[in-house]
Amino acid sequence: MALKKEVLDVLNRQIEKEFDASVTYLGMYVYFEKELFKGFADWFKKQTSEERTHAQKFIEYILDRGEVPTIPATKSPRNSFKSVLEAMKAALAHEQANTAGIYECLKVAQQASDPATAEMLQWFVKEQVEEEKWAGEYVEMVEKIASSIGGLWMFDHRVGKKGE
Fold this sequence. Notes:
Elements: H1 5-34, H2 38-64, H3 84-111, H4 115-145, H5 149-162
């Protein structure tokens, strides 16, 4: 069964959000690399790939439903921040916006009586809990560390180990 137009439209908007997240995290990867925070850099490099995979899941689903997905152009990401904290807060805000997008997709699918799409979206709902968790924890930890370069270095090292 083909997707209703409103469902296809909201899923295509989410594809754009996922690609935007991928590119945003690529910019953060660049920032952390040039600031010599290799653990954070590796983490955001991993997140770049993960977000692109999320976009691909939406693309494959739309194709499976007999429709043609829209592949968006991406904008140049920000790759400079005033501080590690500013970058982490930006990552958290990005994850919260992605969660809002997933919830909007779910709402539209439910209103359109599309149980297959609503079921597919449950994976993303669960994934966003994890995504917001790490982003929130990273913000909280960097806030606790404050301006301690030694503390930031140790946390960077811990994040790098987590991404392995």
